[in-house]
């Protein structure tokens, strides 16, 4: 009788082998997903342990297979398959935007490494000659942080010094403390970047270490708040070595370079709308009014990340006399377009004048957010 009952209970089900063929998943993978609670069988025979699946589970199993194919971690897949179709689509879009942002950062680093290794083939005599032509370089700088015309508090921070230029845009309950902590964590690292003492490859490692220090400082700054994972900051900073600027960047604050009268953006926003611009599903104009334009894919946050801390982008920027750099929070870049930024930077007679003009532009556009900006000129000494 017991055997007959088991037979009746499995009549509408299929074996794990049959289900593996129809779902395009191996039996080994199905057993693993069962153990993880990701894809449970409809029935497990209590006597022999055989797994049986319902035909209605094929759609879920195929979704799991596709998500594994795009590289989504199992923990993420478990969350996605529990959602309705609309929410699952949104979650997949967010995941893929993160992948593309990380790929863009790796591409930039690969480009730097190719250029750096190719440059090592240049004879030292030629390098010495070029350095003699450039002469000694220095920077002149100014910084300003302003609450804007609407916000009652200021969570943005800006700093400019002989070795460090930085802006940070805090958010959440302890955003102000997070932005200040992130910048303060970089100051000792910047002081250690003595001119000529750190080779390019080692400077990249130092910048990554600095980003890790900033991440820990932010976690400490927001610890004890009601929702630490909802407080954090962006960070865009440049360390001056005497001939190069080392960039650390995470979030949607920005760095620009004005060179030869032309403005170049040298950072890539870690935001959902930027990823949609990158894949062609959104234009720059549409992004400006998108309801999720403030959604960040990466930032320095208080709570522990599921797969480890978000990695900041790091790169090196060769300095030339006459270069003018702008670092700013989105309180400026979101309301003032590139043409106006270039005009204000080009017309200013120095960094102090430039930062005042830029903050005035933000106010003229309504000043809806806190504003932080740093302007630095590379000069021959």
Can you describe what's shown?
- Helix content is 45%, strand content 21%.
- It has 14 helices and 15 strands.
- The strands form three sheets. Strands 5, 6, 7, 8, 9, 12 and 13 form a seven-stranded antiparallel sheet that branches. It has a five-stranded antiparallel sheet with strand order 4-15-14-10-11. Strands 1-3-2 form a three-stranded antiparallel sheet.
- Strand 2 and strand 3 form a beta hairpin.
- The longest helix is centred in the N-terminal third of the chain and has 35 residues.
- It is elongated, with a radius of gyration of 26 Å.
- It starts with a helix and ends with a strand.
- The N terminus is likely disordered.
Order of helices and strands: HEHHEEHHHHEEEHHEEEEEHHEEEHHHE
Uncertain runs: 1-9, 120-134
Q: What is the overall silhouette?
A: elongated
Radius of gyration: 26 Å
Q: How helical, in percent, are the residues?
A: 40-55%
Q: What's the topology here?
A:
Elements: H1 2-9, E1 13-15, H2 16-23, H3 27-35, E2 43-44, E3 51-54, H4 58-69, H5 74-81, H6 85-119, H7 124-134, E4 137-146, E5 156-160, E6 164-171, H8 175-192, H9 200-222, E7 232-233, E8 235-240, E9 244-250, E10 254-259, E11 262-265, H10 272-278, H11 284-288, E12 300-301, E13 313-318, E14 324-328, H12 330-333, H13 338-347, H14 351-364, E15 371-380
Antiparallel strand pairs: 1-3, 2-3, 4-15, 5-6, 6-7, 6-8, 7-12, 8-9, 9-13, 10-11, 10-14, 14-15
